[in-house]
Amino acid sequence: MSLFDVFKRAHLPVSRRFSQRPSADEELFDDDFQRKLEMLAMVSRRVFAGRMRAERRTKKKGSGVEFADHRKYVEGDDFRYVDWNIYQRFGKLLVRLYEEEEDLSIYLIVDCSSSMGFGDGKKFDHARRLCAALAYVGLANLDRVTIVGVSDGELVRMPATRGKGRIFKVLNFLRELEASGTTELAETLRMFVAQHKRRGLAVLISDLYDPAGFEGGINMLRFNKFEPFVMHIVDPREARPELKGDVRIYDCETGDERELTVTAAMLDKIGQAWEQYTQSIERFCASRQVPYFAASVDVEFEELILQVFRRGGFLR
Amino acid sequence: MHLTGLPLSTLLALGAVFGALTVALYILKLRRRPVAVPFSRIWQQVLRDKQATTLFSQLKRLLSLLLQLALLALMLLALGDPRTTQNLVEGRNMVVLIDASASMKATDVAPNRLEVAKREVTRMVEGLSGSDRMLVAQMDASIRPLSTMTNEISDLKSGLEAVKASDTRADLRRAMSFALDSLRGLGKAEIIVVSDGALGDLEPIAKELDLSKVKLSYVKVGTSSKNVAITEFSVRRYPLDKSRYEVMLELTNTNDEPANVELTLLGDGNVVDVTEIALRPQESLARFYQDLAGASRTLEASIKLADGKRDDLPADDRAYALMPERRRARVLVVTEGNTYLEAALLLDEYLDVEVIAPAQYPPAQNFDVTIYDAVAPVHDPKTGPALYLAPPAEGSPVELGRSIEMFGFDSWDKKSPFLAFMAMGDIQVAAGHAFKPSKDQKVVGASELGPILVSGTRAGQRFLALSFDPRNSDFVLRVAWPLFVLNTVNAFVEEDTSYISSFRTGQVWRVPAPSTVDIATLIEPNGKRRQVPVKEGRAFYLGEHAGFYQLEAAEAPPLRFAANLSDLQESRIAPASELALGATKAGTVGDFQVGVRREIWLYLLLVVIAVSIVEWVSYHRRWTV
What we know:
Helix content of chain B: 10-25%
CATH architecture of the largest domain in chain B: 3-Layer(aba) Sandwich
Radius of gyration of chain B: 39 Å
CATH class of the largest domain in chain A: Alpha Beta
Oligomer: heterodimer
Largest sheet of chain B: 8 strands, mixed
Strand order of the largest sheet of chain A: 6-5-4-7-8-11
Shape of chain A: elongated
Strand content of chain A: 15-25%
Largest interface: A-B, 33 and 22 residues
Structural class of chain B: alpha+beta
Number of domains of chain A: 2
Largest sheet of chain A: 6 strands, mixed
Number of strands of chain A: 11
Strand content of chain B: 25-35%
Number of strands of chain B: 34
CATH class of the largest domain in chain B: Alpha Beta
Distance between the termini of chain A: 32 Å
């Protein structure tokens, strides 16, 4: 048992510490998952330590702890920052300048609409795992991590938090999320930007099945100075559903119905339409310099996270 | 076009009901299964494309319904059994009599006449029209129907496969009677005789049968008449020297040309004699082989043409005979002493005679025959059938009547095996009794004063009782006396001089069997076993095949016997070109067209199946949905 496991168990109620059969949500973030989070955090630091350094550091000099430069004393400067050693050696009044550090705000926006839980709910589970992984990496880097669940035009928010030790709060929050309601990205993210004045990295984790169009939500982030990062959750099975014969299809979110007879030729066309839709999202993001990442449910989440790291744009 | 099945009104009613049901089921079929999709917008583009073809889709759906209604209409039409007007004529009712007699084994046509006859009938069966009906029957010594009166080709064909040739003559009279009975009351009746025409004398048959209401047709089978036959074959042992035997054999050349044949006589499979005999055209030649010695049990005669070729009918080239078994009969004589009796028994060297005093009866051993001389103890069945000479009143198998004097045999059963070759009228008796036989006892000889020789059954064993002491008559001084004693012993042990060495096929055989059983097992020459009934010591069986048979009954030793064709009528295999029964002359068979079935409903059903397949394929390939 790892230290992480001990720590985790200590946070559980007594009745659950020795539970032999974890619930479905517990299985979602089981011990194995949490060990993988630790690994991802270490790998992220080791792999990207050189390349990504200072990418997000501010150029402002201020009251940090890391020395940056000297400048001449002018009236009004705080005497405490005068470098008296320099004055003693050279007789000049110089003031020490330090790099002012700025913590990054990461907003992990999870789509909690019905389409995310469609079928066996694999997309929603995948989205929550990815969210947890990104949150852990962010927390490990002492970033301010905020998680927001969006559905039915409403927000469910976990307040900003920092530090690796808060991961359990994140996990508990994600466990309690449910996939239901409609996808209204533009409206929901308008509320989001209104409530979060502190700009930062906004990772949108969604299947982007928005009847009103995915563009509105992403643009809402862009236009309000957030740095959007689109993590598109895709399930290839939706490109070729196992349907045959006479059926009456209905949208799991909107309930729109349509009668049709599914043939092999029609399934081919459905696959093509799904591909076109996915490609249109990718093209949109590329044209607007929005980092886009397609996360297939068939790929393990740790592999996906590493791909995100390699691609850049998430960690500093 | 006419409907001969269900009437039109019924068909319309059925059509309305099932048509409505079909439409209802069709509508039900259109209720679709609800299926959720994650994002209907993706389907929009595809559905928009489909919108353009909606009208065509509806038409295709309609086509599916129309196909199903067409299926229903075709099935209802099939139930109506439509017929064309020209096919509404009344169908023929035919009885086909296939000659399966011995002459049909002739090989003048390949492979033989019977197979050619079956092919002819098969052709007729396949050419039956829809309204024709046919019954196929095998005609030999008996008549054997092989199908019902039907138009089912498969039934008729399977019946034809069962036709097998026998070694008997064809009984046309019985076959025609059967055919007429089968066709009684049916329209367009026809009797078709498929034969080589070797059917014996037809005049008596023509007089018996009324052929005015049926059409008689004849299909001739066979081409040539080259045949030499064994028409008689018999063998017997000499009564007083059973180590020797004589053979009678008759050969017949049914050809119009002389023939040289090689005759081979086999005893137990070993050659006994080989003779070459020249026969003139149509000549029958009898040959006797006398005083032949040997221990053989089975005799077989075979002939073949001297030039090495075979004649057209191999079935009559062999004949079989079985000689009476040479075994010693054990005879028990219970007497105080009777020189005449003992002297008579000494004449047959194949008798083992044991004489005992009445006090020593019953003995420990078994005997085949017991002779009681003036005594009548309680009969022990293990001492076999019994001859009683002057039985006393107490213990007599036949009730004794009054005493009579100076009498003789005034009447006697001349066919009785006990009295064969005997002249009883000269016998004079001084004193004796008259019998008072019961109803189940048979009087074999009687004087004017009452029965004096009676046969019957006692304790399951046969007996013969003589009411007087032969020593009180001149019977013992006559030749008839030893004959009487030996006839009685032979009759009891079934070795009488009238022993039949072989039976003739096509007749009902009366084979000696133990009188204590009702059923015996007969093993045919081909090894097939069958149960035969036994009545009064005879097993009855209609024999159809030549060869050696064996009869098994209860604990009695198995009895072997032989059977031969020995029928000149069947050996004359020249096919008759025509068949005439009195004034009725058989014509040729009518119209049989292979492959034509005039039943439209069959084709309608085929169309239904085809349309069903089209509907099924089109539905599952989504062409009509």
